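We modelled the chain as a single entity of 197 amino acids. Its sequence is:
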Amino acid sequence: MLIQAGALGAGRPASDLIVSPQHRILVGGGGQLTQYFESEAFAPAKALTGLPGTRHMKGTSEITWVHFACDRHEVVIANGCYSESLLLGPMVLNGLARTERQELFDIFEAAACTGGAMNGLAARSCLKVAEVRRDLATCKTNGARRRETEFRQWSIDLAMHMYEADRLREAVARNDRFAGSHKQTLAQLQRTGTLST
């Protein structure tokens, strides 16, 4: 997955970042996608492909991944992007050779580990792909509805302003007593270009 500079927020990441599709990216915190997520969580990178600046890297024939694990699962920074250290859970362990698994058990002294991750609980809640995509779609839909409502209100406000200006202009033209006190307002509206003559 390619996450282009600035795709997740201002300076997030600071430069292009390449991660595996399953690698989790922090959302809802650290200035990353806070407009879509209310609280900090980890999202699989592949779930973010609907956003501008994020895409699968098709055609890449060879890549070398560098993973690192901490005593505990951690939020880390890569290229200015908040992400995760390696969570040594069942999915990762099942992808390793027996000797590699044994080496990790020796390093993390995790012989007593029962079904969880060798290096403890996830540093933040981990969202599923469907949850991330639903949240992104819901936020985009709600944002469009908010903008539509704002535009509708602006149109109503403009129509009312124009209606009131027309009434004021008619009153001035009739030289009504009421309009006399508003001639200055009418002149000001005409000067600012709000009201045509």
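As a brief sanity check on the tokenised model: The chain has a mean pLDDT of 83. The longest strand covers residues 24-27.
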